[in-house]
Predict the 3D structure of the following.
Amino acid sequence: MALVGYVRVSSSGQETQRQRDALEPICVRVFEEKISGRKRAADRPQLSAAVDYLRPDDMLTVQEVDRLGRNLLDGLLVLSELFQRGVAVKVLEGIAAGEHRERSLVLDLALALAEDRRRDISRKTKNGLEAAKRQGRTGGRPPVVDDDKRRAILARRDEGQSIRQISRGTGVSVGVVHRVVTENVDDDSGPCSELAHPATSTSVS
């Protein structure tokens, strides 16, 4: 009997090394694909290739049972397809760890728990982002200019440099320089601000 490994992640940005580290030492071959866990077994090229590679008494091996399906329904559909084809499944980790040749309560429970875990992670991530937004923080890329760069832009503007000259001198895009200068004009409230800062025209000449 030989073990044939199957590795799956949902997107190209996800890492597969942890699964490979668990499978490669014990499997004669490992098949990997980056595809949604909602796909049926027949619609997953590498899963189909792994099943075709199996010989009698070989076992399809996964690190955790949720690699076969992203939720309870999807996982059970894939397992049913595999069992109908006479494919035995070996799970290395989790409560479903062991060898399986037919559907069982422990497989159902493992898939249900995996689905619940994903929902919990998604909920916590969403709540965290909403809390950060309420506190004035947002995700994504950091600000384009830091305080030092901002001061350099404004200093050059006070010297009478144009937006494009400042952009070339600081290496900051014209659009960002324009925004920094405009924000500074807005901050200098009062009827005399324009006289106090004669170089704050936003011409891009």
Notes: The chain has two domains: 3-131, 147-196. The helical segments are 17-23, 45-53, 72-84, 105-134, 147-158, 163-170, 174-187, 193-196. The longest helix spans residues 105-134.
